[in-house]
Q: What sequence folds into this?
């Protein structure tokens, strides 16, 4: 091939290489900032034809959304508390809550990751997005763009998680967001959430079928899980109970500690009040597997909260009760069940038997600050709060 014929081909190759290099360099230098924090990602945003494409999974998961990939359909689905979104690779049409929307550029697969146009983040979930060309920064505001009043009430188990989340979000939105958190039990959380008395009802158990039937507009969202430990006084010598012994003690068949290897002393059972999510979950998970339709012995002393049970057991050497993992401290002693200690690790690997869901509920599908607060529970920052409180965040 002579030089005159080869020259145009050589020029074209050099242009393509230069274009690819420019894109690669742009990708390596682009930062993602969400709510003021730099986000780490194994893939960086890409600038193509003046459009900013961002990795969908890392963005949406940092906003607390659930992201799923259907390989057969080449479809990405994104679910937040307020919105359902779906995109098909190489298609300019997406769906937001079932309605078609048109993208500037289609979603694409780049280096094995799904990339979407930055502008679509705003359209999809209501986040504020911007591109700073000077600093090559993708800036997204979601949890720092909240305003209004949110009332939360119900389960005392969820109360410390909700309060911690509320404190963080009000600090992120000074003077714009007000969140109040009260207790009252899971039954109150369902009723208050369903009626609109609370923007968010806290429930530390499954929503009952009867409740779903009664409250047709009720929406529920799992935000984590919790174990329930059997607790006794620190000076009690008993270390382990079988599942059958737990059943027999709490239903009144076993009445003396000597029957389970302890001292010759009566057992004083402590329980939660009717309507408590902790009580409902305990009956379902600890009593029902042995024998259905059994209740905690009527002579048990009821308490209105987890701290109430803990304080009673801490004061009485012969007392026994059950307590949410999140309320365990060194004032009481926990018992193993069939040799399995009540730890988060054992709850996660399903060795420990008494584990329940942590749920929030609303009247209809939530929006605005209420929806974002629910999303916050499943964001990386929200999960850290749940874990710090000794509960179990969603994977």
A:
């Amino acid at each position: 091939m002579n030089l005159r014929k080869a020259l145009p081909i050589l020029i074209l190759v050099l242009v393509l290489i230069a274009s690819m290099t420019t894109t690669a360099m742009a990708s390596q230098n682009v930062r993602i900032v969400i709510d003021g924090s730099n986000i780490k990602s194994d893939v960086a945003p890409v600038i193509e034809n003046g459009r900013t494409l961002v990795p969908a999974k890392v963005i949406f998961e940092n906003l607390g959304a659930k992201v799923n990939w259907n390989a057969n359909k080449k479809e990405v689905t994104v679910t937040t508390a307020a919105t359902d979104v779906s995109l098909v690779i190489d298609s300019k049409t997406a769906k937001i809550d079932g309605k078609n929307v048109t993208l500037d550029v289609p979603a694409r697969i780049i280096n094995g990751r799904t990339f979407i146009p930055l502008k679509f983040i705003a359209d999809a979930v209501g986040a504020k997005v911007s591109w700073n060309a000077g600093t090559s920064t993708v800036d997204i505001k979601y949890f720092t763009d909240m305003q209004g009043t949110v009332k939360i009430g119900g389960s005392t188990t969820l109360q410390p998680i909700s309060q911690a989340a509320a404190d963080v979000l009000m600090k992120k939105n000074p003077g714009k967001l007000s969140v109040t958190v009260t207790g009252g039990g899971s039954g109150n959380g369902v009723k208050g959430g369903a009626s609109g008395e609370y923007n968010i009802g806290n429930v530390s158990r499954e929503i009952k079928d009867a409740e779903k039937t009664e409250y047709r507009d009720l929406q529920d969202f799992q935000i984590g899980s919790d174990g329930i430990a059997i607790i006794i006084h620190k000076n009690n010598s008993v270390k382990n109970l079988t599942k059958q012994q737990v059943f027999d003690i709490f239903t009144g068949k076993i009445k003396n500690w000597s029957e389970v290897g302890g001292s010759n002393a009566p057992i004083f059972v402590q329980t939660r009040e009717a309507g408590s999510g902790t009580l409902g979950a305990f009956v379902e998970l600890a009593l029902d597997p042995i024998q259905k339709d059994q209740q905690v012995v009527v002579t048990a002393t009821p308490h209105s909260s987890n701290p109430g049970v803990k304080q009673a057991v801490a004061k009485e050497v012969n007392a026994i009760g059950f307590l949410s993992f999140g309320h365990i401290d060194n004032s009481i002693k926990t018992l193993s069940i069939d040799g399995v200690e009540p730890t988060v690790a054992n709850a996660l690997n399903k060795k420990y038997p008494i584990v329940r869901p942590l749920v929030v509920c609303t009247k209809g599908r939530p929006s605005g600050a209420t929806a974002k607060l629910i999303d916050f529970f499943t964001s990386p920052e929200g999960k850290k709060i749940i874990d710090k409180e000794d509960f179990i965040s969603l994977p």
